[in-house]
## 1
Amino acid sequence: MVAFGSLPAAYAQKRVGSVSLSFQPQANEHVQSALLRNNELVVFSVRVDTKRRQSTLRGYGFDPQGGTLRWSRNLDSVKVDPWLAVAGKGTVAQSFDNAVASGLRGDQAVPLDYQYYLSFSPDAGRILAYVYDYSRKNLLARALLFDGEVGLLHRESLPIDNRTVNHGLGVNQEGDVFILNSNPEGDLQLEVGNLQTAERSLLEVPGGSGARQQFLLQFIPGEAWVMNTVGNAALPQGTMFTRFDLKSKTTVQAEYLPLPESVKAAVADGGGFLELTGCRVNFRKEVSMLLEKRNLLSASYAYQPHAVNNPANWRARKAVVQTGNAAVLTYDTLGVVLDERVIRRNEKVNAEEVPNDFSYAVFPRPGLDQELTTEGRVIRLEARKGTFQLNTYLNSY
């Protein structure tokens, strides 16, 4: 999670505590994620060795009060074989972070086929780590399921269906693993499985008249929710949420939500693309979505928000990251707008400066977007010029 510039005044926070960590990543080691649970901060990193073609997932446990290191160990390691391009093979949706990283120097970013991804259950009692294997005829995701103490429960290679675009894997607090795909026909496909029992189910929603893009996955007890945009890349016509009942393995609801005219007006100028970057579902089954205007400006690269991971695009280039106006929209389960907030901003930063700053929420939920925070206290793992701190903020709503 990368922080671009300062937050707007409406989301100003007051820092009330700061702890420096006794932590310095090695060369070619990149912090990916973190969580705060049971009075311990766990930091996950990826260590890259391109000469030996090896990628290693590392874990570090810290005392959140004093910042001292309690433990560190390798959680997994894979040999990275050469990428194999095959017509019709499953692909992976490109994230904005990877679009930015694709133009950085080799030591500033983790190459595509070396990347580990992490997903946490809502209660942080289950941790899913996975890495894509692009070297085979059919795309695979090598998945590892950990408990909240980072003890390994299970590992398995999961196939990503041909002709599909994968939008990530998720895990709920029961330990079920979810594979979120879409296909060229616009169908939403959510595969549900339990790594320990080998149960598998496929939940599908047929495509509609508008193109569906930017799929995100959330969980509440007994349900899985998928959020996405509908319409063109520059300015979607609306958003959509789909609810799945996990006991009956059925679709409960598929709700299209047209973009409010006030939001369209707020993001109409300035170029770039309006993208769904975050979402959250609360205990009342109200869904909040964060849409942000952003772009990657370069003379030698045209950013496409619906592209898939492609190593051919990874070459050093000069680029500028641009962020514009954003909106937070909250709906009830009938699709009625409960809250509509526009966040006005216009910021630019050179892409090579992005890896120098790191800001990632570890409480109340790992990776929670700043604008979706409703709690009064937020704890973030932050890095400035290689120095890592655990900072506590109070929201000043």
## 2
Amino acid sequence: MNYEESSEAIRKKLAALSDTNAEDWHLCLKARFGMALVFEAIRDKLGAGEVITTPYTCITAINPILVAGLTPVYHDIDASILSTGKPDDHYCKGKTKAIVMQHTLGIIGDKSSIRKYADKHKLILVEDAAHCVTRFARDKENNILADISVHSFGVEKVLTGTKFGGAVWINPELKTKSPALYDAIIKKFNELKSPDRHMAFRVRTYRLNNAIIQRLHGNFRRNFRSFTIKAGILEPPIYPFEQDGQQDEPQTTNKYINERILEQLKILKSNYIRRNANVELYHSKLKSKHFSKVTKLQEPLLAFPILFETPEKANEAYDMLTSQGYFIRRWYSPLLYPGPNSLSIYRYNPKKAPIAEDISRRVLCLPTDLPVIETSKIISFLTDQKSPVEKPVDNSKKK
């Protein structure tokens, strides 16, 4: 297949997996690029203003708002879903243009209240589904809630065999709701250019370069990695300049990336089956007397979040598990991960999000893509150790 054929094959596969239509899917090199195009179109057609979002996220989910000339307004999270619940009305001012509905770690649950909030205040509802490719928040009639939904094939996402690529689904109802905005978004995606030869080289050699770097040790690893980034050899998950509110110009995919995406989409169902089995195992074996589990929802999560009584206990558990060779995520510690160089650039005030600030210091995210036998070992390491496990924490008073 050539590029056009493989792109169409991806759109058809995404549609089949999500019960949507292929023509409503649009590809990009990185999900953040797709988000930037969406927010730029919102600014162009609806005017400059604010976007309600959350600090419990990656910095690359906020940069698209900033580069579009919009202003992020941070709402604290609901501790049970690690994302924004229904915001208070005072968050929505006359200049508010959109609200982001993020599915942290793939936790979707019932988010119909956000759709109602968006309708009440005439906001564009942008769904951040980066952690749950092809899965959407839906109402009781199975209708998709979002106006625009952003999905990712990138590093450390659900598809472990892909490192690049994103897809944006545009609700066809937006064409009637806001035709100028709909046309502007479509136009921006149609005008995307393919990666230049330098980017194409970094994409193709990413696995090899990263494997070499991972075999190095200590300061030499860090210094060599920094050198490869500055020399234009390695395309990192997050560039240093992205911690200053910037990002590259958006690009689309190429044939090589498309082939990797198609390979992984073919096994997405089995991928989700494995993740769901591990989530159920964590639920059943990590007793509440040991942990305060963040969610009771049994969904095929990207990672399974648990809370510890103190940051120190979370650090102990992290050190213990990583010493056994397990890849344990600290999403999102710090907030706006991996942390901005300046809070003022991001207009973030930690005092406005006490729940997110607290949880980010005490959370560990356990892998869900391992064989069940390995998941059982992780559970044993946690439950057999007295030091890292503590009584559950009641977050209800902080809501």
## 3
Amino acid sequence: MVTVVLSIEPDLCGPVSVGTVRVIRTLEQSLGLCLADALALVNRAVFDGETVHVPAPDADAARRCVAALASLPRVRAEIG
């Protein structure tokens, strides 16, 4: 199974993470995740400091996702 390995350096404003909406939307659109699943994964990466492994439907989807995330600050993504 192809995965996107994702880690995010948090940018917190109080108890809220700043700059994660594009990450969530990218996971939804590139990998076909529902909003709740994408949000849960991003929250684990931001608030728990976890490196998450996000399942991708195929290698092309994983490549598109990693490419889209490459321009975002504080986000590291690679194909796993």
## 4
Amino acid sequence: MTDTNSQLDEPSSLGRQLQSALERVLSNIDGCSMRPTDIARKLDVSRVMVSRLINAIKKPDPIETLTRIPGPETLRSIIRAAAIAGVSKADAEIALRLVDSFDVLIRDQYGTRTAMNAALSGANEQTLEKFEQSSRYQVFKGMSQIVGAQSSLWVTCMMMTQNAENESGIDISTIHGTSGLRRLRPDTPIRFVYGIPPEYTDRRQSPQRKDFDITSFMVHEPAPLDVEEENGQIINNFNPAIGGKDALYDMFSEVYIPNGSNRFAANGRSMRGTTVVPDIPVVSLVSDVVLCDGIFEGIEPQLFVYNTMPRGGADIEDPKRDIDRVPASEELIKLHNLSELEVSEFPKYVDMVRYLCEKNRRPFDSIRVYRLRVQYPVFGFQYTIAFKVPQPSG
């Protein structure tokens, strides 16, 4: 038996015993079904905690039960209330002893409930997924309060088409930005080096910012931005008055880079693709690579996720940055049906893709799409979709 399995033996056994004992307590409450509302009313305890407890003890994996049940003190209050409501003293005492063992396991072996959940998270796929999403949500909440803003969606739609003058060259057309942007604090500046407005036309450099009006794709009002120049950069300040939950804005930019990529490896570089680092905490990230004209045909993309905090943005071809790579549970999805292009948080997304197809004179039904979707992407992480291209023939 491996060391990992050995470490899981005690928690697994305890979880199995708790499943049995707690189910016996709940099912023997006088005149009560196993419905959370019935039990909560009968015991005068929180319905949310009862529902969480019932769902946890029904999990087939006892480790998942341990990571999902309420804490020891909540369990004790439910068991004691059940004893008053008719559960036998023997069943209640068995359950309380097991809860005491659960409490000791947390304090003596792991120190905190959070540490225990982290240590047990790899026990199975469901436990790991639940733990990771819960952890990312906590980061989202905390960073939203620190940054002073949050958004529902960060989206990048990058289309690659054949360059007309260079047979190995690729033109890149991109619309990227955020939808459902909301300011939370009046005392924190929210600043984006993002999108260059028309008054700075004379200072534009590649990539070329496009002046076409894309507000028709927006779900909310365009974000009000105060523009200033600082240290050679154009800074967009998002500082609207603090409003209610419906004070939401959209902010998108269109970018065109002629001959911005290449079908083949060159100058020691062989990876092509797109990188996204959301500027603010967001609920969902959607990054699409839209391919036309047989570009990267037969090449499956790879996902690279980096923690950029120690050393800034990562070059995926720099082996020294491998140490900053983060394991990712998400997978890249190839969209076989164009109806799968829909993004629930952004109902005009398909229209946006059609718009890029029309501008680039490519049939909508000929595109190939690879998508990354991340729920609560970690603020400060870099998400890169990359294709490893071949050396040029000869």
